[in-house]
Every structure is written in structure tokens, then in C-alpha cells.
């Protein structure tokens, strides 16, 4: 028996988007995510996307797992594809749906016949299939109003499809429908979650990471790459730029007032990230900031860092979330265990003893003015090292 995946239009998250753009982006993503699993046909017809294995070797279980992680799909069904032959339908359906029905008390069968040449009406099909299921699983009862499980039999152009309920998808919008944005990725818990959340809204991700060797080591960079590979399971490949940040941090430490170290460092990060983002086609920056989480994430501190980005918006998807809520998502995307590994981030180097929690723009700009950072900023951008991160790690 052959199994396929059906994704119906009603199960897509189409709201507010152009249907053809949406569908073509989604189909592209599905193709890209499944291509290494074996030969598969992916087509759309009758408001439905069909994912159909072509050869025996195709890894169908893994395909279902991957489809669950593709944004833009609210739900999908895993079906048996049968010949349009009543005998075959009646003999295969009860065993195919038996595991889905094993914990159920009640069920009903819905039949849909888009091929009107099929010699049975929908009510006839439903009745016959219901009878076949009952004779194999006599503990069940039919309940047409609120059954535990609904078995669907669809007679379509090329085949009959049978399934017992939908599987929840990842929701969100297909990656690419929203354009591209650059995540400022640290090795912490928050930024990978922020990246995931924005990919879910349809953004292609680029990433920048600020590294300060020798204060930060190669393991910290590896950690960032691992975290991005966890995000890439959902977002697709991510282009990462690692920015050498040591000289800028040392210049801050040597020249600026200590209580402003962190804020000035964050302003430098935002400036550099904006320029890299714009050079690489990103239309926004993304950070993992959450209001009040640390001294540099109070409203006055955000005001001081926000003004340095002039051209593109800064998205902060976690701004209103509690740490617990963020950790729940971090675990869900399998990033948490990596995030809590204890490697130094450049933020923890040169941390002021008493950071300003109510900084003013003027004071901060004054503390920064004492040194000409522009040549160092340019140098850092020029010496940024790029790589591509896939779900399997660095490409
Ligand atoms: P995270 O858990 O993401 O590290 P955090 O709560 O530790 O966040 P900060 O260290 O203040 O907060 O950083 C706030 C945001 O700044 C991060 O979410 C991230 O977007 C960005 N950021 C911090 N450090 C770096 C870095 N080394 N490289 C790139 N971006 C960074
Ligand atoms: Mg951090």
C-alpha cells in the first residue's frame, strides 16, 4: 500500500497573502526539504498539494516529520492512496486506520466523491466503509455528531485517499514570503528563539555574530553555529557572518566611561549589523531582547541603542515574553541544551560593575564621542567571515 501526504488549501495559512506567491514559496520549500529523502512527486491540483513517493526507498516517516516543521502549513493528512475500487477500499481501510482508532470509542466515516463516475454515492461509500471498520473493531460505535475519530474517504481524479484525521503543522507563513532579515545571534537562550519566531512569520534569515577572540573562544563560535543549525530545521539555510569585535571592545574599554560600556558596545553592534544587513539585502534586524530582562533592556536603554539604526526596523519578537515562555520554545526547537553550555559571550567580557539603567541619549553619545570608532567599524565589517549554516551544521 502506498502512502502520501495531502495538504489542502484550507490547511494553509493564506490570510492576507497573494495565493500564487504563497503556494510557489511553499512548494519550493517542500521540494528543498524533502529532496534528499528519495524520489518524490510534489504537485498541486484541486486546491491540494500532493506529496507522493515515487520509489520504494523514499523515507516517508522522515518526510512527515519534516513537513511538520514547514511554516505555512497549519495541518496535513497522511493518507493511504488506493485504487478507485470499492473492494480494495473496503479491505485496506480497516487495517490502515486501526492504530488511529485503537484508543477511540466512537468514529464516523465521511466520504467525498469528486469523481462522479465512481459507481457509489458518498453516503453509500461511508456506510460500507463504516460497516467494514465495525466488523474488524466491534468495540467501536458510530457517532455522527461528535466522534472521537473521523475517517475520511476521498474519491479523486487518480486515486482514492483514506485517512483518519489531520496532523497539526507548524503554522506561520512560508519562509520567503516576508523577505529577508538579519538576526543578531549570541550564544544565549533568547536570540535563537527570536530567529525561529521571525522565520515563522515568513522571513528568510541571515545572521551576524560578534566574536571577541581571545576573550571568546572557538567553542563559543561553534555553539552559535549549532544553535543556528537548530533554527535552520525550520527556517532553511542561514548565512552567518562572524564579525571580529575585539578591537572595538578594547577601544570602548580604554576610552569610554565604564558605566556606558555595555550600551556603547550594543550601539556598535547595531550599527555594524545594520550595515551588513543592508549590504546583504535584509530588510530588518532581529534581536532577542525582552523588556526588563537585564540592565541593557530597560526602555531608556533600548532608546539609546534603537536610535543608531537609521534605515531598517529592529524586530524584537520576545520583547513582551517572560523567560519561562522563551525557554519553552527554546526546548521545543531543541536549542536549550546548547544555549546553556557555559562559553563566554562577548557581552560578558568588559561588563561594567554598575551599568546605567536610566541612561540618557546625550550622556551616552558624549561617552562615545571621545573616540573615533568609524575606522574600526569599517575594518570589522571588511573582515567579517561568512559561512552557510544548514540543519546539519556548517555547509
Ligand atoms: P541572548 O539569550 O540572546 O544572548 P540575552 O538575554 O543574553 O540574550 P543580551 O546579551 O543583552 O541579552 O543580548 C541582547 C541581544 O543582543 C541578543 O538577544 C542578541 O540578539 C544580541 N546579541 C548579544 N550578544 C551578541 C553577540 N555576541 N553577537 C550577536 N548578537 C548579540
Ligand atoms: Mg546574551
What does the model show?
This protein is an alpha/beta fold and 395 residues long. 39% of the residues lie in helices and 23% in strands. It has 13 helices and 16 strands. The strands form two sheets. Strands 1, 2, 3, 4, 5, 6, 7, 8 and 9 form a nine-stranded mixed β-sheet that branches. Helix 3 (86-101) packs across helix 4, helix 5 runs parallel beside helix 6 and helix 8 packs across helix 9. The longest helix is centred in the C-terminal third of the chain and has 19 residues, at 261-279. The two termini are 37 Å apart. The model has no long low-confidence stretch (mean pLDDT 94). The chain binds adenosine-5'-triphosphate and magnesium ion (MG).
Output the number of helix runs. 13
Largest sheet: 9 strands, mixed
Q: Terminal Cα separation, in Å?
A: 37 Å
Strand content of the residues, in percent?
15-25%
Percent range for helical residues? 25-40%
